[in-house]
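Final report, closing paragraph on structural work. Over the funding period we assembled a curated collection of sequence-structure pairs, and we close with a single example.
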Amino acid sequence: MIKTVLFDLDGTLLNTIDDLADAGNWVCAQHGWPTFTVEQFKHMVGNGIPKLVERFSPENARTPEQLAATLAEFTARYDAHKEDKTAPYPGIPELLDELRAQGVQCAVFSNKADPLCGKIIAHYFGTGRFAAVRGNRPGVPTKPDPAGLYALMDEIGADRSATLFVGDSDVDILTGHNAGLPAMGALWGFRGRAELTAAGADALAAVPEDIFTYIQKG
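Its predicted structure, as stored:
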């Protein structure tokens, strides 16, 4: 029986892509660089903000010094505008309340910078819905490395034999499997069925309620 559900953030709990794309394109425009569509940004995100910045930066602007400066620009812009268009996916707040009522603890594990994760989760979900929120922290490798996930499970006392990981990308499926957990794919997110299936998702959720149904079936 699943007693803990660990959620990815972007593309799983919150539809953040418009604010991420707007911040990225704003930075690009400041430098006279090419900009990108929202669909293109969906395939740039998922491996952390430093990797996103590297992906939208032209090849001639990828020295360590330039990337560090661009990362600072992007982070400041995104932090100031991260709630302009972002919203929870339909059914997510209700799912979280349903899981809590059934005694299933929930937590967030994201490649987004840790300080941004805490602020954005608190803004959209308040307090009490998650046992912990963990983003990318200095010195800890990003997903799909399971190191941060292990630390999160230890923090909240999650039994690895009774924990499910839910996310919308191949990175999330690999993260769950690298930690020895079943991994469920969220079809409403940024990547879609083909990528999740190819990554070996143990199950797919078309709507958030499917996660609750999966847990009930054991």
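Strands lie at 4-7, 14-15, 87-88, 105-113, 132-136, 163-167, 183-186, 203-205. The chain is about 45% helix and 15% strand. We thank the funder for supporting this effort.
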